[in-house]
Amino acid sequence: MTKFNLKGGGPCRKKAFENTFLFSVITEAIRFPHATELDVRNAIGDHFKQAPGRAWGGGYKNKI
Predict the structure, then answer these.
(1) Is the peptide bond before 33 cis (omega within 30 degrees of 0)?
(2) Which of 17, 11, 15 has the alpha carbon at shortest distance from 47?
(3) Which residues contact residue 27 at a Cβ distance below 8 angstroms, ignoring those fewer than 6 apart?
(4) pTM for the predicted model, two decimal places
(5) Which one is predicted more confidently, 48 or 38?
(6) Under 8 Å CB-to-CB from 13, ≥6 apart: which residues?
(7) Number of H helices, E strands in the chain
(8) Gyration radius of the chain's alpha carbons
């Protein structure tokens, strides 16, 4: 999970989740009528931000 972020790139060269088929499936399944596309994007982005702290998430790097 720590190999992805919403937009991709960054210093760790993560893959963009928004370019995957799964992202479009999740967005379409949740978006109508429950939420806007922005709500879905924010929720997925928050999920990836918290991923290192989850079980099997890879952990946070120690900054020295």
Answers:
(1) yes
(2) 17
(3) 37, 40, 41
(4) 0.64
(5) 38
(6) none
(7) 2, 2
(8) 13
Instruction: Say which DSSP state 10 is in.
Output: T
The pair phi, psi for residue 49, each rounded to 5°, is -65, -35
What stretches of the chain show up as alpha helix (H) in DSSP?
Answer: 21-34, 37-49
Amino acid occupying residue 7: K
State how far the Cα of 48 lies from the Cα of 4, in Å rounded to an integer: 7
CA distances from 35 to 13, 45, 58 (A): 30, 15, 30
Amino acid at 18: E
Q: What phi, psi does 2 have (nearest 5°)?
A: -80, 0
For the stretch 1-33, pLDDT in tens is: 567 777 787 777 888 888 889 888 888 888 777
